[in-house]
């Protein structure tokens, strides 16, 4: 009978260190979870900070649309794209004639370099609660902080790239045919 309590006593001492070891593992695991949660929150915070630089996505979209309108106004009239490059057995050319206004070539030419041109824009504070995107013709005579203005121009340029990437399928004129 005396040996039974010793075994039980021995089991208790063996179980206690394992429990402490698992507590250490849980503690380390909790610290890891806490650190990853903090990192996650910081990354979300930084994303919102970057998004705050855009200030208003509608205003940024309007600035991109305004630059696209400028490109459309500079566009010269073009002929249809003649894609008829084969002859049939009767000597008639086969293929399509595509209206340039509805062609993928036009979309590519208009959008190519659009986001680089957005680097000419910066965010200007109108009043305490409102900001607008303006096109800067001369960065040297800019009255606001030039370093901050350049940072805003990079922000809208990268926003333009994301916007075009997200709407790529809708912009493609071939999807309307």
UniProtKB/TrEMBL annotation:
InterPro entries: CNPY, DUF3456. Transmembrane segments: none annotated. It holds the Pfam family DUF3456. Residues 1-29 are annotated as: Disordered. Residues 57-171 form the DUF3456 domain. It comes from the Eukaryota. This is DUF3456 domain-containing protein. It comes from Corchorus olitorius.
């Amino acid at each position: 009978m005396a040996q039974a309590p010793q075994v039980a006593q021995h089991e208790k001492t063996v179980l206690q260190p394992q429990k402490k070891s698992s507590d250490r593992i849980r503690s380390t695991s909790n610290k890891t979870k806490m650190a990853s949660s903090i990192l996650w929150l910081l990354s979300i915070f930084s994303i919102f900070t970057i998004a705050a630089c855009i200030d208003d996505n509608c205003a940024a979209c309007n600035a991109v649309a305004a630059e696209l309108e400028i490109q459309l106004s500079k566009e010269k009239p073009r002929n249809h794209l003649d894609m008829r490059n084969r002859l049939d057995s009767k000597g008639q050319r086969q293929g399509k004639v595509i209206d340039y206004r509805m062609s993928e070539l036009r979309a590519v030419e208009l959008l190519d370099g659009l986001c680089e041109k957005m680097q000419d824009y910066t965010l200007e504070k109108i009043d305490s609660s409102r900001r607008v995107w303006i096109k800067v013709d001369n960065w040297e005579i800019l009255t606001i902080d030039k370093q901050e203005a350049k940072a805003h121009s990079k922000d809208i340029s990268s926003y333009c790239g994301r916007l075009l990437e997200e709407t790529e399928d809708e912009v493609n004129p071939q999807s309307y045919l």
